[in-house]
Design goal:
- Chain A: This is ABC transporter permease subunit.
- Chain A: It is found in: Cell membrane.
- Chain A: GO terms for molecular function: dipeptide transmembrane transporter activity.
- Chain A: InterPro entries: BPD_transp_1_N, MetI-like, MetI-like_sf.
- The complex is a heterodimer of chains A (336) and B (308).
- The radius of gyration of chain A is 24 Å and the shape is globular.
- Chain A has a single domain (86-331), classed as Orthogonal Bundle (MetI-like fold), CATH 1.10.3720.10.
- The longest helix of chain A is centred in the C-terminal third of the chain and has 39 residues, at 244-282.
- In chain A, helix 1 (2-29) runs antiparallel to helix 13 (300-328) and helix 8 packs across helix 9.
- With 336 residues, chain A is mainly α.
- Chain A has 14 helices and no strands.
- The mean pLDDT of chain A is 84.
- With 308 residues, chain B is mainly alpha-helical.
- In chain B, helix 4 crosses helix 10, helix 5 (136-150) crosses helix 7 and helix 10 runs parallel beside helix 11 (259-265).
- The longest helix of chain B has 37 residues, at 98-134.
- Classes of the chains: A mainly alpha (336), B mainly alpha (308).
- The A-B interface holds A 14-15, 18-19, 22, 26, 29-31, 135, 138-139, 141-144, 146-148, 150-151, 153-154, 158, 223, 226-227, 269-270, 272-274, 276-277, 280, 291-292, 295-296, 303, 307, 310-311, 314-315, 318 and B 39, 144-145, 147-148, 151-156, 159-160, 163-164, 166, 236, 240, 243-244, 247-250, 260, 263, 267, 270-271, 274, 277-278, 280-281, 284-285, 288-289, 292-293, 296, 308.
């Protein structure tokens, strides 16, 4: 078991180094010298430029710079934002809970709706419900989510006035961030009004970000269930006279869940990518919106650090899913 | 069966032996399966329609997409109050005809899809073939590099590449192409590895075929099916991601009538004139959905084993 986990981890290390190298190159691929980019239009006297280059280590050979960079990364030093002068790492850490809260709820929404829909579609294969679910999920899968968000705002926020248009919390409230998760922080502070406000703010972004994963989960659940329902042991269970619900819920679902769980794990990338669009539309103060703003402000250290941290998050989650999969399914553990 | 040609027997006699039943041509068989899938047929029809409209945009579009009619600013679609027959789907905030812009946008989107799929397929195919055929260190190097690309969320990677290259339609297409290369590379590699040790490949190798011939002439034709499916689905990814980049201001720049860009530039009229935001989104959704339907249908028809 330990050996399996170690193998998996060791496979991720080269990928991590590669991503680090890519983000290291990023700031050097951007047109213009990093320092000239930093000082902007005002210009800089040549001797000061040389001085700064030396201070930042830019006059050293590239491999040396890369080692310096890696050394910094491993200590959590990702440079300083050009705009705010704050450490990129601390900015990311402050904003990340907002993204995480949104992504977690989106995934919850996708699973809570997608899983039952997929199961029922499989059980009633060929029915109107099945066709409906498959049609809707293919539409969801094809949805340009930035437009979908605008439609929902137009209908629910502007038209019906049910939900707020943007942000995380009503201006009426202020809650001291403890965990960074608004739902938890408001409850901990005992501000139930603020909790409701936070929940209201979450609904539309959650639906928008959850739409594509919902489609994926529903489709995957349906096809996994269909496969399992054709197996001999299901026929045996039915022949034994077990109730239909028990066969589906216990015998079939448990086996169908393995690929579904994997797919849910793999959606992390989709969620963090989609967060860029969702957060931009809803002015959600998370890392996605922050990245786009960094690009628009030419804040390349922030972009560089943000990309590296998001990639690390995705890799870590994929690794966890991989390991979990091995724990759940011994055949995988031993085959490699 | 040989006919005894005895003189007494009339020529017309027997067609007694029934014609040997040949298996249908693969294309016929494919079409037979494909035709049964109503969704895929609908997708194909929509794509053909969009392709024709895109091709003949100059003829089909009622107006020049960039002409600004000063007397027709934010005219609603024709069936709403205040709508005009001259502008079937209404006009935008500077008086340009929505329908004409959508039609020219279709041309752009089809072009984006075509270029992105061609580029990424070519590079991904080459990398995948090399990795799968040679194996060993080459394989490890190529595939680890693909893993690196895959570890970034695709939209994030596209955003980063577009940020490095600078905004613009061409750079957006490049960005999206780079992002999807790993999918083709992995698919090709898997298919090539499955074929490489089969007898017919070994036979050609023994017969003296060189690596290029083996790769391109012997193995490649047998790996095409999954690639066709992936390429079709690649159109929808390309159109969707390019539109997202346009929406974020990193893709095509105004006044280019790219659908995502159109959406972004009319955002502030969302409440006053919902149609300026509605139509480009509908266009993206319908096109992407059509390609996804077609891709699903192709997968089922090309690989009946996967049909569920």
């Amino acid at each position: 078991m330990l050996r399996f986990i170690l193998t998996r981890v060791s496979l991720v290390i080269p990928t991590f180094l590669g991503v680090t190298f890519l983000t290291f190159l990023l700031i050097r691929l951007v047109p213009g010298d990093p320092i000239e980019v930093r000082v902007g239009e005002r210009g800089i006297p040549p001797e000061r430029l040389l001085e700064l280059r030396h201070e930042l280590g830019l006059d050293r050979p590239l491999w040396h710079q890369f080692l310096d960079y890696i050394g910094g990364v491993l200590q959590g030093d990702l440079g300083v934002s050009l705009v705010t002068r704050n450490s990129v790492f601390s900015e990311f850490v402050t904003l990340f809970p907002a993204t995480l809260e949104l992504a977690a709820l989106a995934m919850l929404f996708a699973t809570v709706v997608g899983l039952p829909a997929g199961i029922i579609a499989a059980v009633r294969r060929g029915s109107i419900f099945d066709h409906g679910v498959m049609g809707i999920s293919l539409t969801g899968y094809s949805m340009p989510i930035f437009w979908w968000g605008l439609l929902l705002i137009l209908f629910f926020s502007v038209g019906l006035g049910w939900t707020p248009v943007s942000g995380r919390l009503d201006l009426l409230y202020y809650v001291e961030p403890v965990t960074g998760f608004m739902l938890i922080d408001t409850l901990m502070a005992g501000e139930y009004g603020a909790f409701w406000s936070a929940l209201h703010h979450l609904i539309l972004p959650m639906i928008v970000l959850g739409t594509v994963p919902l489609a994926v989960v529903a489709r995957m659940t349906r096809s996994a269930m269909l496969e399992v329902l054709g197996e001999d042991y299901i026929r045996t269970a039915k022949a034994k006279g077990l109730a239909g619900k028990r066969v589906i819920g216990l015998h079939a679902l448990r086996n169908a869940l393995i690929p579904v769980v994997t797919v849910i794990g793999l959606q992390v990338g989709t969620l963090l990518g989609g967060a860029i669009l969702t957060e931009t539309i809803f002015s959600w103060p998370g890392v996605g919106k922050w990245l786009i703003e960094s690009i628009n402000r030419r804040d390349y250290p922030a972009l560089q650090g943000g990309v590296l941290l998001i990639a690390t998050t995705v890799m870590t989650v994929n690794l966890l899913v991989d390991v979990l999969y091995g724990v759940l399914n011994p055949r995988i553990r031993h085959s490699r | 069966m040989t006919n005894p040609t005895t003189t007494g027997v009339p020529e017309t006699l027997p067609a007694a032996s029934p014609p040997v039943s040949q298996p249908p041509h693969p294309l016929v068989e494919f079409w037979y399966h494909f035709r049964q899938n109503k969704g895929a047929m609908a997708g194909l029809a929509v794509i053909l329609l969009i392709a024709v409209v895109a091709l003949f945009a100059d003829v089909v579009a009622p107006h020049d997409p960039n002409i600004q009619y000063r007397d027709a600013i934010l005219v609603p679609p024709v069936w709403q109050e205040g709508g005009r027959w001259a502008f079937l789907l209404g006009t935008d905030d500077i008086g340009r005809d929505m329908l004409s812009r959508l039609i020219f946008g279709a041309r752009l989107s089809m072009m984006i899809g075509l270029i992105v799929v061609t580029l990424s397929l070519a590079v991904g195919l080459a990398l995948g073939m090399i990795a799968g055929f040679f194996g060993g260190v080459t394989d490890a190097l190529v595939m680890r590099f693909m893993d690196i690309l895959l570890s970034l969320p695709s939209l994030l990677l596209a955003v980063v590449v577009a940020a490095i290259l600078g905004p613009g339609l061409v750079n957006a297409m490049l960005a999206v192409s780079i992002v999807v290369i790993p999918h083709y590379a992995r698919l090709t590699r898997a298919a090539v590895m499955a074929e490489t040790n089969k007898d017919y490949v070994v036979a050609s190798r023994v017969a003296g075929a060189g690596p290029l011939r083996l790769m391109l002439v012997v193995i490649l034709p047998n790996c095409v099916a999954p690639l066709i499916v992936q390429a079709t689905l690649g159109f929808s990814t390309a159109i969707l991601d390019a539109a997202a980049l346009g929406f974020l201001g990193l893709g095509a720049q105004p006044p280019t009538p790219e659908w995502g860009t159109m959406l972004a530039s009319s955002l502030q009229f969302l409440q006053r004139a919902p149609w300026v935001v509605t139509w480009p989104g509908v266009a993206i959704l319908v096109t992407v959905l059509a390609f996804n339907l077609l891709g699903d249908g192709l997968r089922d028809a090309l690989d009946p084993k996967l049909k569920r």
